[in-house]
Amino acid sequence: MDCCFMFGRRSQHAVEGDDGEHSVKVFSYNELRKATQDFSGANKIGEGGFGSVFRGMLKDGTLIAVKVLSATSRQGVREFLTELTAISDIKHENLVTLVGCCAEGSHRILVYNYLEKNSLSQTLLGSGYSSIQFNWRARVKIAVGVARGLAFLHEEIRPHIIHRDIKASNILLDKDLTPKISDFGLARLLPANATHVSTRVAGTLGYLAPEYAIRGQVTKKSDIYSYGVLLLEIVSGRCNTNTRLPCEDQFLLEKVSSTYLQAFIDNLNTKWCQLHTEATIP
Ligand SMILES: Nc1ncnc2c1ncn2[C@@H]1O[C@H](COP(=O)(O)OP(=O)(O)OP(=O)(O)O)[C@@H](O)[C@H]1O
Ligand SMILES: [Mg+2]
C-alpha cells in the first residue's frame, strides 16, 4: 500500500507545513522490496556515494529507480519527508522526477522515474560498449538541456537550488536522449559528517570550481564551473580525468587550458558550423 504524505491538516499523516498543496508519495518497504525483487543483484543498476540504486517495477508496470540511502538513518522521518517534499514538487523536462520515498524504520529510500538510457558517464564517457550514437545534434541537445535544467534550479525555484555535484553520472538520458539532471537538492539529506563525496565539500574531484574546493564557498558559479567541465566532456567525448593515459594527457582541463585550447576551439567552431549547416538543410 502506498500513501501520500501531505502538508496541512487535511491528511491523516499531516504535519505542520506552509500550505496544503505539497505531497510526496510514501512507499512501504515491502512494496519496494517486491518492486526490485528483494533488491536483487540482478536489478542493481549502480552504486554512488549515497548508496545503491536498483531498477524496479511497480504493480501498475511503471519502471522506477530505487536509491537506497546509506548514511541517513539518523535523520528523523519527519525531517526526511520535509526535505523531500520540497524536491518532489520540482518538475522540469530536464530534471529527474522524484516519484516518492520510503522512510520506514531506519530505511531511507528515494524512488525516481527510471531513465532507460542510463547516465552520460556510462554511455558517452564509459569504456564499455554503448549502442547510442552521440552525433553533434544529440550532443547539442544534451548540452542545452542540462543548461536549461540548471538555469531552472538557479533562477526559477524558490529558494534557488545550487546543485553542488554537476557531473556526467548525474546526467541521465531518456529514450529520446533528453538529458535529466539527477540528485538535485540532496545535499541536506546527508548528515554533515557523512558527506558521500570525494572531498570535504559536496562535489566531485575534477568538476570542482577552485573557490569551492579551496574555501568551500558555494555559489551558482561553482555549478556553472562544473557545467563547463561537463561541456568539455560532452564535446570531446572523454572523461575529464583518465589516469590510464600518459601523464600529459590525463587531465582534460589541463589540455584545453594549454596550447591545445586554440585548436580545441577551432575544432569546436568547425563542428558547430557543420551542425548549423545540417540543421538548415530542408
Ligand atoms: N533514475 C535513474 N534511472 C536510471 N538509472 C539511474 C537512475 N538514478 C541513478 N541511476 C544509475 O545509478 C548510478 C548510480 O547513481 P548515484 O546517483 O547513486 O551515483 P553517482 O551519480 O554515480 O554518484 P554520486 O553518488 O556521487 O552522485 C547512475 O550512474 C546511473 O547509472
Ligand atoms: Mg548521482
**Which CATH first-tier class of the largest domain would you pick?**
Mainly Alpha
CATH fourth-tier homologous superfamily of the largest domain: Transferase(Phosphotransferase) domain 1
Give helix % range: 25-40%
Please identify, by name, the CATH architecture of the largest domain: Orthogonal Bundle
Shape: globular
The sequence of SSEs as H and E is EEHEEEHEEHHEEHHHH
The N- to C-terminal Cα distance equals: 53 Å
For the report, how would you describe the main beta sheet?
Answer: 7 strands, mixed
Number of strand segments: 9
Walk across the major sheet and give the strand order. Answer: 1-2-6-7-5-4-3
Number of domains: 2
Rg estimate, integer Å: 20 Å
Q: How much strand content do the residues show?
A: 15-25%
* Structural class label: alpha+beta
Query: How much is the average pLDDT?
Result: 80
In the predicted model, the low-confidence regions spanning at least 5 consecutive residues are 1-22, 192-200
Ligands in the structure? adenosine-5'-triphosphate, magnesium ion
CATH fold annotation of the largest domain? Transferase(Phosphotransferase), domain 1
Number of helices, where a helix is a run of at least 4 consecutive DSSP H or I residues: 8
